[in-house]
Design a protein that fits this description.
- Its cofactor is Fe(2+).
- By secondary structure, this protein is of the alpha/beta class.
- The protein has 4 domains: 214 residues, Aldehyde Dehydrogenase, Chain A, domain 1, CATH 3.40.605; 198 residues, Aldehyde Dehydrogenase, Chain A, domain 2 (3-Layer(aba) Sandwich), CATH 3.40.309; 195 residues, Rossmann fold (3-Layer(aba) Sandwich); 222 residues, Dehydroquinate synthase-like - alpha domain (Dehydroquinate synthase-like, alpha domain, Up-down Bundle).
- 44% of the residues lie in helices and 14% in strands.
- The protein has 29 helices and 25 strands.
- It has an 8-stranded parallel sheet with strand order 10-13-14-9-8-15-16-17, with helices on both faces. It has a 6-stranded parallel sheet with strand order 18-25-22-21-19-20, sandwiched between helices. A 5-stranded parallel sheet has the order 5-4-3-6-7, sandwiched between helices.
- The chain is globular.
Amino acid sequence: MVKEKSKVVELTAEEKKANAAAYTGELVKKAHEAVLKFEGYTQQKVDTIVAAMALAASENSLVLAHEAVNETGRGVVEDKDTKNHFASESVYHAIKNDKTVGVIDEDKVAGSVEIASPLGVLAGIVPTTNPTSTTIFKSLLTAKTRNAIVFAFHPQAQKCSSHAAEIVYKAALEAGAPENFIQWVEIPSLDNTSALIQNTGIATILATGGPGMVNAALKSGNPSLGVGAGNGAIYIDATANIERAVDDLLLSKRFDNGMICATENSAVIDASIYDVFVEKLQVHGAYMVPKTDYKKIEDYVFVKREDGYGVTGPVAGRSGQWIAEQAGVTVPEDKDVLLFELDKKNIGEALSSEKLSPLLSLYKSETRDEGIQIVRALLSYQGAGHNAAIQIGAMDDPFVKEFGERVEASRILVNQPDSIGGVGDIYTDAMRPSLTLGTGSWGKNSLSHNLSTYDLLNIKTVAKRRNRPQWVRLPKEIYYEKNSISYLQELPHVHKAFIVADPGMVKFGFVDKILEQLAVRPVQVETSIYGSVHPDPTLSEAIAIARQMKAFEPDTVICLGGGSALDAGKIGRLIYEYDARGEADLNDDASLKELFQELAQKFIDIRKRIIKFYHPHKAQMVAIPTTSGTGSEVTPFAVITDDETHVKYPLADYQLTPQVAIVDPEFVMTVPRRTVAWSGIDALSHALESYVSVMSSDYTKPISLQAIKLIFENLTESYNYNPSTPTKEGQKARENMHNAATLAGMAFANAFLGINHSLAHKTGGEFGLPHGLAIAIAMPHVIKFNAVTGNVKRTPFPRYETYRAQADYAEISRFMGFATKGDSDEAAVENLISEIKKLTDSIEIDITLSGNGVKEDHLERELDKLADLVYDDQCTPANPRQPRISEIKQLLIDQL
C-alpha cells in the first residue's frame, strides 16, 4: 500500500498574524505578572539583583563576544568584549546608586516628594550590530527600574543575544528576581516582532536597530524610545592637536569596524591643516581610495532609500578590506580605513551617508563658519540630532560653545574618539554610559540624551574630554637599609603575630630572626607560624592559611619570603578578614572558590569594578621580601593559582597593599643564583611595563627609570655573587637589586603592567615555567610588538592621548646610554632589546620556550585557550597596544 505524502498547510498572512499575536500576547501576560511581583521589592533587593546580573555579564563577556562575531560575521571580538564590559561594568557603576524604588527625592521646603514607579512591560528591540551588549544594557536598566522586558532579537544574532539574556536572567533569578521579568521571542520573524511592539500591554518600546525597525516602533501605537540614523561628523579645527586627532579618529573608525552609531562618518578639516592631516591618516593605516573606484564602492555598499542612501545588509561591521574586495577594489594589506575626498556641494550623495563600517568621507573647510555649515548639512541630510564632534587645541576656546550651540545634535563631543566617547563614561563624565542614544526632536525622538534610568527631556550636552584624578598609593611605611628588620621592635599594636613563610625561611633561620626581633619588645608577643608555602601557591593553600589565622586571631600578619609567600599571605589574610565580616565561610570550600572567582574578575577601571574588596580591620600586614623581584611588598597585587586548572590569576586591589614594607638586604645575601636571575628579570619587566603603560605618569616614570638603571648595573654582579666568598661589590649589588625590585613595585603598583605579564602568567601556568623565566622569554617579543608606529590599535585611556610606546622605549634606551639623541626611536629600541639580550645571556637564561622544554605540539594544542586567557588577564588593559587575540596567538608562537 502506497502511503500518501502529508501536505504542508501554508498559513495565510492573517493566520500568521493571529498566531503571532497569540504567542507574543502570552509573553506580555507573563511579563505583567512579573511586574506585579516586582512592586514589593525594596531598593536593596533590586540593587542586589542588578549587581548579580552585571557580574554574570562581565564574567561571560569574552564568550559572548566570540559568539556575536561567529554568528553575525560582523565586528571585532576584542571590541565586542569591550562593549560587553562597558554594558555591564560602566553601566552598572553609573546606575548602582540611583534611587528607583519608592521615595527618591523630597524637598521639605517646597513640599514636594518624588516617588518612582515602574512603567510596566517593555519591548526590547536589539540590533545585529550590538547583539549582546545591548541585551545586557537593556536588561540591567529593566531590573533597576523594576520593569519587565520582552526581547525581539535580530534573526542574524538570535543565538548570541538570547544567550546574553539567558545569562543575566539566570543570575537575576538566583538573586531573587521574579520569574519571566526577562523573556524573548524564541523564533524571530517579522510577524512576531510586529505583534510584540503593537501589543497594547506594552508600556514602552526600547527600539535600537535599523531605520525600518525604529520607524515601525514609532508607528506602533505604543510609546517608543528610539534612536535615529547616526551620520555624525567631526570638525578638525586648525588649532587641533593633529597627532591626537588622527589617533582618536582612527581608533574610533576601527572600533568594532565602525558599527557604533556614534562613529564619525565624515571629517570636516580646516583647509590650513587638511593636507598634513590627511597624510597622517594614511601614515597610520588609512587608505585614500582612488576616485576611479568610488562608484564601485558606492554600488556595493549603498542602496537608495526614501531618506537618501542606506548601507546594504552584508556591509555593516565588515572590515574595510572585506568591503573593498567585495566591491572589486584592491586595497594594500596594511590599510583598513577607507578615505573618500568629497565635495561639500554634493552632500546627499551615497558616500556622504551613514556607513556603519570603516569608511570615512573627507571635506575641506576654508573657515570655522563654513566648517559648522558642512557639519549642519551632513546632520540635516541623515543624522539629525545624533552627534557631532570637534577636535580643537583648547577645550575652553569660546568656539567650542559656538559650535555646540549651532549644530543640531544631542551630543557634542570634544577631543575624543566619537564611537567610544558618544556612549559616555569612558572619555567623559558628562554623559551617562548607554547603548541607546537619543536624537531629540531633531531626529524625531522623545529623548535627546543617552538612555538611562532618568526621565525624558531634550538635553543638549557638550561633553569635554577629561582625565580622571590619578593617584600614588603605597604602604604607609617603607623601611630599607641593612638591619631595617629591627623596626619590628617598634611596630605599634602587635600582640599576636601570625607569620607566613616558605619552608626555606624556616629551615635556614630567617623566621627565627623575626621571632628574635619580636622577643625584644617590652610586652610578650604571641606567635603562630604557617611555614610551608609552596612556589606558585594555590587557592587551597591560601584557604589553609586563613583557617589557621582564624584559629589564632592575629592582630598582625607578617609575610616573609619571595613573591609566593607574600602573595599567599595577602590572600590568606584577605579570606580571613572576609570570614570575620561574615562575607565568607571558611568551612565551605565551594563558597570560598566562588568568592575567589568573584575577586579575580577582570576590570578595566579599578574604581569601577563590580566586585569591591572590603577594607581589612582585624590585622595589619607587614611584608618582608627575601627575593628581589615581585615587589609584592609595596603593591596591590597578588598572584594565586587555581588548583583545578593551574591557571594563574592576578588579583588587584589596594586593600591588598601591606601597611608596612621592610626591605632589608640582609635577607637576600644567600639567595640562589637562579632565583636571582629570574626575580631580577621580573623586576626589570615591572619597571619597563610601568614606564610604557597607558597609566604611567610623571610620578611613576622616574621611579621606573631608577629601577631599570639599578637592574642593568647590578643584576649580573648580583647573579655572580658567591655568599661563601663574600665581596663588598657583590653585597652592594644584591642590596641595589633589592631596592630596585621595590622601586619597580612602587611604579607598577600605580601605573600597572602589560602583556609581558599576561603572557607569562598563562605560559608559566600551562608549561610549568617559573614566573621570571616566562617573563624573560616573552619580553623581547612584547617590546617589538609595542614599539611600532603607523596602524596601531591603542588601548583607550584618556590620559594616553597619542600612541607613544616606541618613543617611551627609546627614552629608556637613551636614559641608559644605549642610544644617543641622534639615533632614531626605532634604532634606540633595537639597542634596548639588544642590551636586554646581553643581560639575559650574562645570567644564563635561554629566552625560548623550546629551549626550556616546551613542545610545539603542546603549544599548538592549547593555543586558542591560552590566547583567550592572555587577552582576559588583568594585566592586559594597561598595555599601550591593545592586542587582538590573533596577535596574541602569534606572540605565543614567536616565543617557541
